[in-house]
Structure prediction request, 339 residues.
Amino acid sequence: MRPVLHPRLVNPPEADPAVYIPFNFQNRSLLFDLGNLEALSSREILKISHIFVSHMHMDHFYGFDRVLRLCLGRNKRIHLFGPENFLSCIEGKLSGYSWDLVGHYSHPFTIVATEIQKDCQVYQEYPCSTGFQPVGAPRIKPVDTKLLAEPSMEVIYTCLDHSNVCLAYALAERFHINIIGDELVALGLSTGPWLMEFKNALYRQADPEQEFEIAIPALNGQKIALGALAHRIARITSGQKIVYITDAVYSESNIKKMVKLAESADHLFIEAAFSEAERSLADGKKHLTAWQAGTIAGMARVRNFTLFHFSPRYGGNTRFLESEAQSAYENQMGMDRKT
Ligand SMILES: [Zn+2]
Ligand SMILES: [Zn+2]
Prediction:
């Protein structure tokens, strides 16, 4: 399977947390968390459609200004999600500037924010045209763990205990469609926007007997049914699952939620601020140790995991944290095999 999603840490693992997820062949990407984004190019930032913020400690929210600065004056709506108090933190950021000259911009940028509370979700829009004043009263919606639900993928969240609420997120493709290049050539077809239409028809499970819009040169310009075309040019496999967990206490209820969210993920990004030898420090600062992170990765049976959020106390010398997490992961996987 050629993966569509190529997630990566924006910064080295001892620097601000953020995971950038570009989509292959699409001018689009998602972002988990909003630490310092100087390492991303302007082009990369302008591709972002949705940003999922874990919480508003400064190392997770500092990058907001760079997104704002780059999107200003562009025809763009950017969707942000975050925990309790998210809207007032966004409003606080926005009120730190003077907006008297932006009302005439011909390409109005809009921030669309959703605050995830325990019993509801609060939605508000902040258009550049009003100097980022909120439009009307906030809309209250019932709790829905699916923050993004598109035909091809979804993003869900869980609430973890940190010093306050911290959100962890999972992005899951429903299934994955690979196009077989040789078959395209054999049918005389070339790539183009129609392929996205074709994939979308499969994602929304359109009637396979229905004729698909593309004329097939190798069949004298005839059209064929969606199902027959899919049988010929598409290979369908299970989709990717990417999970992001940061700033969490190692408590029984958090462990349960983290393992459930990360279950069978292809790639888990998980914080590991301290070494197990400094567990009391991790407990006090409400972070995970590398051993705990590896244990969660093993319990969830993830395929790969990447650690981040290393405490600056280790300098660049963090190899041992990775070894510690790897041992815990292997230990857990071994224990699981025996039971
Ligand atoms: Zn924090
Ligand atoms: Zn943090």
